[in-house]
Every structure is written in structure tokens, then in C-alpha cells.
UniProtKB/TrEMBL annotation:
It is found in: Membrane. The chain crosses the membrane at residues 25-51, 57-79, 100-118, 124-149, 156-176, 188-209, 230-247, 267-288, 295-316, 322-340. Its main location: membrane. SUPFAM superfamilies: Multidrug resistance efflux transporter EmrE. Pfam families: PUNUT. The keyword GTP-binding does not apply. Keywords: Membrane, Transmembrane, Transmembrane helix, Transport. It is a multi-pass membrane protein. PANTHER family: OS09G0467300 PROTEIN-RELATED, PURINE PERMEASE-RELATED. This is Probable purine permease. Belongs to the purine permeases (TC 2.A.7.14) family.
Length: 362
């Protein structure tokens, strides 16, 4: 009998350890998706605009248009669960609660607006500028996460928010020094503002995704992650599709392809590749939020900024002036400050778990 109890006691820590290992693996895979999707996707979108592309709602639509690919892992997971002998009698295909479905619809529409703001900015701004502005979503995520999911501010997180916002101010004060040839001051300024507003909305959406599953009180599983990703992307795609219909983008695609600077075949190839890349970025971003937190997603996005800068200078006709270097240094300094703060906080939590404070004795 004692042996059975001991085996049962050893089983639970082992099961918990396996769960944490799987969760860490999912976070790693999603981080890879973010990296590949964000770097290649942003470059492809900028190439589209540089060679004659003008459809902003089309690019916003492509950000999540690849969502049907998620049907495959959802179907496989559902089929596997149905075959399990110990499965429950509830065999509904949709496992997402009504509250999460409503939240997904709202977040999907907000994501569609956010996608449009980003693509609007990328149509007028160099990648080196738009990526630095987009990285401020970490600061906005931290602010919204504080109010929505009660993530506490520390000296390090406040330092990170201030530094990243100062970097944006520096870029704003010297924006005319890197304006693309032939681009009007009004459009360049509007692209700058729209990208910054998009970063703020992105921070709100990130915190909103985490808030939705925390408020619903559900256990985060692979099925929930996949289905929430599917619903958010689907509603975002439908929202952008309606905007494209009103803007008559579908009728203009064939004409735009004929006039594209790199040729018609490369036009469709760029659209297809950007769809795949941007969907990878979306899957990775939402996956990291569900498997970890919205703040980690913002950290990964901020960390990719210098890599985006390098690729933009290599593959696109862009330069890197002193103002950009200063803004990049502030971005990296803010990232390092935030990461160090999170690292110290995790060490503190580990120490508290090993040596819990005894309750006060009466």
C-alpha cells in the first residue's frame, strides 16, 4: 500500500514536469514562427509597395488570410481525442466557450484595424523606421497588461517603456532625414502616426488575448490555442474582406498585377509568400501569448528589430543614419532592462517556492 502511494506521489511531479516541457517546446516553436514570419513578411510587404503595389486593405487581409491552414492541426487533434478510450462523452467539434468566441470576434476586428494601420505605415515608411515604431508595442502591451491582467510595473519595465517611447520621439523629430524619394511630407508623417497608433492597438490586442482566457477561467491547452487563433484570424480576415469589397480591391488585383514593376508572376508570388509568412507570424504571436504571456510576445517582437534592420539594409534600398542607431540603441536598452527585470522576478519566485514564508502564528 505504501508503495502504491509512493508511486502515485512520484507520478504527479513527473506529469507536471512533462506538461512544463511540452509548454516550453510550444513557446520555442511559436517564437521561431514569429521570427521567420515577421522578418520575411515585413520585407515582402515593403517590396510590394516599392514596386507599384497600392492596396493597403489587401495587405491587411493577407496578414490573417492563411487561417484555414489551422483546420489541419485542429482536425488531427480532435480525431485523436475521439479515439481515446478515456475521453468524455462530449464530442463537440468546437470546444471554445461562448465567452471566448465573442472575445475572439472583438479581438479579430481590432486585429483587422491594427493590420490596416501597420500596412498603411509600411506603404510610406522604410522598414528600418516602421520596425522601430512597431517595437513600441512592447511598451503599450506592458501598459495595457498592467490595467487588464494586473501585471505589475517594476523599475525595469518602466525604464523599458520610457526608453522605447523616447526612441520613437527621436525618430519623429528627425523623420524628414530619411523620407523616401518622391514621398510627400504629409504622407510620410501620416504613415509615421498610423504605425505608432497601430503599435498601441497591437499592445491592446495582445493584452486582450491574455485577458480573454484569464477571465474565462479556462485551462490553456493546445486545442484552445489553435481554435482561438482560428477564430481571431477568421474574424480579422472577414473584416478586411468587407473593407476590400467596399474599396473595390478585388477588381483591381489583376490590373495591379499587370502594372507591377517586377512582373505579373512575381506579383502573385510575393502575395502568396507574404500570406504564408504573415500567417506564421500571427500563429507564433498568438501562440506565445496563450502558452506564456502577452509581454513575452512583445519582447520577442522587440528583439527582432535589429535583425529586421540588417535585412532591410541588405535587401532594400535603405540607409541607417545616426538617428536610427540612437533609436535602436534605446530599443535594445529598453529590451535588456525589461528582460533583466523579468529574470530577477523569476529567480525571486523560484526562491519563494523553495522556501515559502511560514504563516504568522497567533
Amino acid at each position: 500500500m505504501d508503495m502504491e502511494i509512493e508511486q502515485e506521489g512520484n507520478y504527479k511531479p513527473k506529469k507536471l514536469k512533462n506538461f512544463k516541457s511540452i509548454k516550453s517546446l510550444l513557446v520555442l516553436i511559436n517564437c521561431i514562427f514569429i521570427s521567420v514570419g515577421q522578418i520575411s513578411g515585413v520585407l515582402l510587404v515593403r517590396i510590394y509597395y516599392l514596386h507599384g503595389g497600392k492596396r493597403k486593405w489587401l495587405q491587411a487581409f493577407l496578414l490573417t488570410a492563411g487561417f484555414p491552414i489551422l483546420i489541419l492541426p485542429i482536425s488531427i487533434s480532435y480525431a485523436r481525442k475521439r479515439k481515446e478510450k478515456n475521453a468524455t462523452n462530449n464530442n463537440r467539434v468546437l470546444l471554445v466557450a461562448p465567452k471566448l468566441t465573442i472575445a475572439s470576434a472583438i479581438l479579430g476586428i481590432l486585429l483587422g484595424v491594427c493590420s490596416y494601420l501597420y500596412t498603411f505605415g509600411m506603404s510610406y515608411l522604410p522598414v528600418s523606421i516602421s520596425s522601430l515604431l512597431s517595437s513600441t508595442s512592447l511598451a503599450f502591451t506592458a501598459i495595457f497588461a498592467y490595467f487588464m491582467v494586473k501585471h505589475k510595473f517594476t523599475d525595469y519595465s518602466v525604464n523599458a517603456v520610457v526608453l522605447m517611447m523616447l526612441g520613437s520621439v527621436i525618430l519623429g523629430l528627425h523623420m524628414n532625414s530619411d523620407r523616401p524619394i518622391g514621398e510627400s511630407n504629409r504622407r510620410y508623417t501620416l504613415g509615421f502616426v498610423m504605425t505608432l497608433v497601430g503599435a498601441a492597438l497591437h499592445g491592446f490586442v495582445n493584452a486582450g488575448v491574455e485577458y480573454s482566457h484569464v477571465k474565462a477561467g479556462v485551462v490553456v491547452t493546445f486545442d484552445i490555442v489553435m481554435q482561438m487563433q482560428f477564430l481571431i484570424s477568421m474574424f480579422s480576415t472577414l473584416f478586411c474582406m468587407v473593407a476590400m469589397i467596399f474599396n473595390k480591391d478585388f477588381q483591381a488585383i489583376s490590373r495591379e498585377a499587370e502594372e507591377f514593376g517586377l512582373g505579373q508572376n512575381k506579383y502573385y508570388m510575393i502575395l502568396a509568400l507574404s500570406t504564408i509568412a504573415l500567417q506564421m507570424m500571427m500563429i507564433g504571436n498568438l501562440g506565445v501569448i496563450f502558452c506564456s504571456s502577452a509581454l513575452l510576445s512583445g519582447i520577442v517582437n522587440a528583439l527582432l528589430v535589429p535583425i529586421q534592420q540588417i535585412f532591410a539594409v541588405i535587401f532594400l534600398p535603405e540607409s541607417f543614419n545616426s538617428e536610427k542607431w540612437m533609436a535602436l540603441a534605446m530599443c535594445l536598452w529598453g529590451f535588456a532592462s525589461y528582460f533583466y527585470g523579468e529574470y530577477k522576478d523569476s529567480l525571486k519566485k523560484v526562491a519563494e517556492n523553495k522556501h515559502p514564508t511560514p504563516p504568522d502564528q497567533v
